[in-house]
Structures are given as structure tokens and as C-alpha cells.
Design goal:
The structure is a homodimer of 407-residue chains.
Chain A lengths: L1 E8 L3 H12 L1 H8 L1 E9 L13 E2 L3 H4 L4 E6 L7 H10 L3 E4 L2 H18 L3 E2 L11 H4 L8 E7 L2 H13 L3 H10 L9 H4 L2 H15 L9 E2 L7 H9 L2 E10 L7 E10 L11 E8 L3 E8 L3 H15 L27 E6 L3 H10 L4 E2 L3 E5 L5 H12 L4 E6 L4
Parallel strand pairs in A: 1-2, 1-4, 2-3, 4-5, 5-6, 8-10
Antiparallel strand pairs in A: 7-9, 7-11, 9-10, 11-12, 13-15, 13-16, 14-15
Helix pairs in contact in A: 1-12, 4-5, 5-10, 7-8
Chain lengths: 407, 407
């Protein structure tokens, strides 16, 4: 039986998960592939001299690069330094690479994929976007004859967990964040990568790059996090038959005209994304031939993610052509990116009850409490929505705008 | 640029859809794959002498078999005669084959996959189960490091359309069936393949074969259709916070112990499958490493299905190894297949109001109207449920049993 030798770079949660999955699922994998996948080298700067696999550890990347028996390398270091340099070295040494590192793929994907093509090896990164969701493999696999003009998704488990908790347990954002930190979902002390939408922005940038064939820089993703979402907003949304979720979207048929964004948005309870609770992820793909296709699963977690990376490792040893995973360097964008008129869900707060009553008379408010009101606008441009917000704020009330994401 | 030459066998709805997708998406496919995929021969016994592609038609399979420039053949004849013979001939002639033909795959999959392995070509059939859902490609792709011990799915669009209509429009089964026939969803005059569960049984048999690595004959799938589901049952289910769907399931860790079934079952409104309306399909995969993964999309339709077949065609030209798609011939089953205790949703009808009142006193009925009642049992074995049904029937009432499918 053929043995495929693997190296793991970075033996943290995900890296050790890969070794665990290969061990636990050894017989399943043999029966499906007719091959044994074996970890022979592990790169980590920390001390693992007491680990059962201690003989396989190294602190020197050269030990992997110079070992010709290693055909696939799994990168789970995270960040770009030294992950980028190491990945490039592995590729140049003729090794396939898999990665779950969204920062690496979002910022360095162009260069890595180009190097992989030149070296005739593959670089797969399913787990970098949406954890366990069969997303990249579907876009570049059975859906590759489709043009996908619209993606809406929940791509960050941490913020979804926090919003679910604020809504169901009627607790504050700060309290829900603490809980997420206690459970290890959000980072301590700085949860900014999740909370401020950067993580989701990286993921939607990767998807956009795949769809349009051009590198979509994360800096071009209009990104807004969930710090401003209060339990009052969620209650008003509920009263109007909806909820608020952090939605990552990519609309448009080509790179120059695309709108790529991450923002807390209002969705109706009947929207497929509304039922996605806790740390789960879901993505809806609007395919021009095959219609709406959606995938759902856990967005993160040690074994769930590691198993998907092992799936990628096996894929790499079964493929002969990796042309479907390649995108070009950044294009110069058209100045006038398409702006669509949208409906907005608007929440208004004031301690002054009379003011609320007065405002309610002016706008057709759908949900009213003593000190708050909420309503929908008709389809208007963003600039008009901002104008409306400014006008309302002249009454000395707190106003928030949420895009309405429709199915 | 490389040109991949394709033949289509059977130029009905799906076959002509393949040609249409290749034409409409030509530039997208070129930009993603660097290849042109071109239909050079079409096999059909009907007369297409006025068709724009008339020069490519043939009535003789030999014209495809003897054309060495053709590397992939798409089978969309349907049924097994002459599809099986033609597919085997193509494979033996060294051509990859894709198919959307569930009857062919469910009954002849073992032989076809074995022949494909011997010939060193691929046989892909994503569209045969769940139309546009990235299902087989996920099971054999990014989820292949997982053991999947449970599948629950809605795999037949026609019956789901009928049940959705009975529920929402409160019409009879017969009326809903007529509507489905008018829209071309159900076949006329004999809709039995859909209505009696055979179509879903073929699909779950294919999935079970993939999971366990042994051919699961359709005859071993415990199959019950939707003819017995009345609008009253759906109303009682709604009153008890649920609905009735035709659910295809596969439970168990290995072939001998597996329970594979298709039956109308009760599911709670909070169950992910409850929100699947009309002709859509959804499948939940319970993966031992990656957790619940679900896929959703259109179960059928000309372009949706054809585009997925084109996805398979492209896949075949990018792979070097098809070992992940292979299953062995039938094993002898263990005599004692695992039977789990389950909850049942029981509906009872009678024109005799007093009888209903009397029965309600005996069982803890959760939903009662003048002439009907419905309740849940505790977890009991199927034999006990049947005994209960018999006992209730001694009161001369109509009794129906539905398994409760829990998430």
C-alpha cells in the first residue's frame, strides 16, 4: 500500500488536530483511498520533548524542505510571518500545501497560487473560509460551470454566537462578548479580529477573489463590526419579524463592479440565514444556472476544521490539475462602483417619550416602545439613508441604520 | 488552448441542457479551466435533422466509441436499457462518463465503477442524487476523512412540492398531485416513481453505498410513499408544532447494521429540514469529526442539473485518481439489523366524536379536533408502535403512524 508522507507546520490546536484525525480515522481513510497518510515531520518552535511523537518534531524548516519523501505540507501556523515564507519554500521544493490560514490566503493568495502553478503542485485552503462548509470545493468543483453573482453568508462563528446570545438571553453586547471569551470563541484580551469584522472580511475577500479571478484586497471590503448592535436593536428587529446578523456579502458579475462587504444587517425570520445560531456558518450562493445552493456547518473548532484539512490533503494526492484555483493580481478598480438602492431597517432611541411619539407620527414606524421606534425605508441609495439619519439626529435621538438583506 | 471533446447520449431535457450550459457559460469555463469543452457527437434515436447542431447527431453508438478524440461522455438517456450497455461500452473504450441517472447508478453502480477502475477512467454522478446539491463531491472530497453515521434528507422535489401544497393551501393529496403533474414535476399518467418513494429510495441507496463501501440494493430500502398523507395529518402535525415530510435516512456505522429508509415522517418546525419548501432538496450529514454539515439546493430542473453535470465533466479532466468512488458487491446482511426505539406521531380519525373524546382520555393527546386527535408516543420499538395502532383500530378509528425524525 502506498504511504503518503505529510509534514505539519505549527502544532497548535489545528495542527495537532490534523495528527489526531489521521490517527482516529486511519482505517476509514485507508478503505476509501487505498493509501496511508502519515505525519513524518512536525515543525514547531515550542518544546515537545515529552510528546509521544517527539521524534518527529523539528525547529528547522530545512528538515522538511530537504526531505523528498514528504509530498504534502499542512500549514497551521497562522498569520503571515513566518507562514508565508515557509509555504513558499515548501511549494518551491515541489510539495503540495494545505492551509486553514485565512490571513495568509487573503493577503498572499495571488503569489502562493502563482508559485504553486509554476512548481506544478497544489495549494488548497477549504478550511480557511467557513471551517467545515463544502464551499471552495463546490465553487471550484461541481458549480464551476456557473457564474455566481451573489453570495450572502454568515462566516464568523464568534460574532454569530454573540448576536444569538444577545437576542435569546437579552444580555448586553459586553456581557455576551465576555461569555464568548470565557468559552474560547473570542480572543482575549483583544477580540477585535472577530468583533470588528476583520475575520469575516478576509473570508469574503477570498471568496470574491475566487469568483472574479482577481485578487480582492481585504482593504476594499467595506467592513463594519457588531460593537454597535444593542439588545434593543435585536428586540426591535424581532418585533418586526426579523433579526440582525453579521452578513458577509459579495454582489456583482465582475471585479470592477463588485460590492463586497461585511456589516450587521437586518434579515427577515424567513430568510435562510436567520436560523443559523451559535458558532455555525452558512453561505448562500446564487448560481446563474443551478439556482440557489447553500452550505451549512461549523465555522471552526479543532477536529471539525482539521478533518476538512485532511480532506484537502487527500484531494491533493488525487488531482492532476489545479488550474481551477488561480487568480490574477489586483486590477485597477473602476472609479464608480455600482451602488444599489436598498431597504434599510432604522432604529431610533430617546429618553424623551414625547420625541419618539412625535417622530412616529412622521415616519411610518412599525415597532414602537416607550423610548424607541423602528421602521423600514423604501429602496433608497446609501447616501439618502445617511441623510435621513442625519435629519433624525437633529431631534437629539440615537439612530442606527441596518441594510435589509433579502433572499 | 486545449479542447476537450464531449459526446452526449440522450438529447432530452438534461442532455440538451448540457449543450446549452456549455454554450452559455463558454467564456466562464475557459477562464476557469483554460480549456474549451466542446460537444462533438450527440446520440439520440429521434429525428433532429432540423436542429442547429444537426451534423453532430448520430443514431449509432459506434460513432462515439470509435472517435478517439472524445474523452468524456455524458449519459442522459435515463433508465438502464440501453444506458447501462452504452455506458459500459464507453468506459471500455477508455472514455470518462458522467451521469444523472439514479436508476442506473443505484442498480448498476458496482459494475460500472469496477469497469471504470479497470479502464483507468472516471465515472461521476453528482446530479443523480439531489440535483444541484454538492453532496457526493463533499462526501468523497473534503469530508472523506469523516465517518458519517447518519444522513437525513429531502431527496425528492416532487413529493416535497405536493406536501408543501397540501399544507399551505389545505388541498387534498389528489388535487396537489394534479397540480404537480400540470407543472411537469410529477409524471403523467403514472407518478408512482416519485409518489411511492422509489426515486428517493434509489438516491438514498446510492448514498448508503458510498458511505459503507458496499452496494446497497434499492430493495433493501424500507420504502413508503406519501399516498396516505392527508391534509388532516398535516394540520394535526402543524398544531403540534411540526410538519410531515418525505424523509430519506441512512443510520448506522456499517453496512450490516444500517437502517436505510424512505418514509413520510414527522419533524419539528425547528428541524432544519422543516423549512425546505417546494421542489428543493436538503441533506444533513452527521460527520464524526466535522459535525453536522448540510447542503441545500434545487433537486431537479434542466439547467440546474445540466450545469452540475458539466461541473462533473470538468472534474474528470482535472483528476488523476478516482479511487474514492468505488464500492464492493453486495455483502450478505446480518440477520438482526439494528432497530432503534423511536418516538412516533400518531393521528386518529373517526366520525364518532364520542369515540375521539374517549380515546383522548386514554392517551395524552396533544392535538384534538371534533373528529381527530394526535399525540406522540415515548421512545418505543416499531413492533410496539404497530401493536398500539392495532389496539386503537379495534375502536374502529383510522390510525396513522409517523416516525419522529429528530435533529
Amino acid at each position: 500500500m502506498e504511504t503518503v508522507k505529510i509534514a505539519i507546520m505549527g502544532f497548535g490546536t489545528i495542527g495537532s488536530g490534523i495528527a489526531e484525525v489521521l490517527e482516529k480515522q486511519r482505517n476509514v481513510i485507508i478503505s476509501r483511498t487505498g493509501r496511508v497518510y502519515e505525519v513524518t515531520k512536525i515543525l514547531d518552535i515550542r518544546d515537545f520533548s515529552l510528546h509521544p511523537m517527539k521524534d518527529r518534531f523539528t525547529k528547522n524548516i530545512e528538515d522538511i524542505l530537504n526531505d523528498d519523501s514528504i509530498s504534502v505540507v499542512a500549514e497551521s501556523i497562522g498569520g503571515t510571518k513566518p507562514a508565508f515564507e515557509f509555504v513558499m519554500s515548501c511549494i518551491k521544493a515541489g510539495k503540495h500545501v494545505v492551509s486553514s490560514n485565512k490571513e495568509l490566503v487573503a493577503t498572499k493568495g495571488v503569489e502562493i497560487l502563482k508559485a504553486a502553478q509554476e512548481a506544478g503542485v497544489g495549494f488548497l485552503f477549504e478550511a480557511s473560509v467557513g471551517g467545515t462548509l463544502p464551499l471552495i470545493s463546490s465553487i471550484t468543483g461541481i458549480l464551476q460551470a456557473n457564474s455566481i453573482s451573489k453570495i450572502d453568508g454568515i462566516l464568523n462563528g464568534t460574532t454569530n454566537y454573540i448576536l444569538t446570545n444577545i437576542e435569546k438571553k437579552k444580555i448586553s453586547f459586553e456581557h455576551a462578548l465576555e461569555r464568548a471569551q470565557d468559552l474560547g470563541y473570542a480572543e482575549t484580551p483583544d477580540p477585535s479580529a472577530d468583533i470588528d469584522g476583520h475575520d469575516a472580511a478576509r473570508k469574503i475577500a477570498i471568496l470574491a477573489s475566487l469568483l472574479y479571478g482577481y485578487h480582492m484586497p481585504v482593504s476594499r471590503v467595506a467592513t463594519e463590526g457588531i460593537r454597535g448592535v444593542s439588545s434593543f436593536d435585536l428586540e426591535l428587529a424581532q418585533n418586526l419579524n426579523g433579526t440582525i446578523k453579521l452578513i458577509a456579502s459579495c454582489y456583482g458579475d465582475n471585479y470592477g463592479q463588485a460590492r463586497v462587504s461585511v456589516r450587521p444587517a437586518y434579515i427577515f425570520k424567513t430568510h435562510r440565514l436567520a436560523s443559523v445560531d451559535d458558532v455555525n456558518n452558512m453561505v448562500l450562493l446564487d448560481c446563474n444556472m443551478s439556482g440557489i445552493v447553500s452550505v451549512y456547518g461549523r465555522g471552526a473548532g479543532k477536529l471539525p476544521t482539521a478533518a476538512v484539512m485532511v480532506g484537502d490533503i487527500i484531494e491533493l494526492t488525487q488531482r492532476s490539475d489545479f488550474s481551477q484555483l488561480l487568480w490574477d493580481s489586483e486590477l485597477v478598480l473602476d472609479a464608480d462602483r455600482q451602488e444599489q438602492p436598498l431597504r434599510y431597517f432604522v432604529t431610533v432611541y430617546s429618553d424623551n417619550k414625547k420625541l419618539i411619539t412625535k417622530l412616529v407620527e412622521q415616519v411610518d414606524a412599525g415597532s414602537i416602545t416607550d423610548n424607541s421606534a423602528a421602521f423600514f425605508t423604501s429602496r433608497i441609495m446609501r447616501s439618502e439613508a445617511e441623510k435621513l439619519k442625519k435629519k433624525l439626529e437633529t431631534y437629539n435621538v440615537t439612530v442606527k441604520l441596518y441594510e435589509v438583506v433579502e433572499e
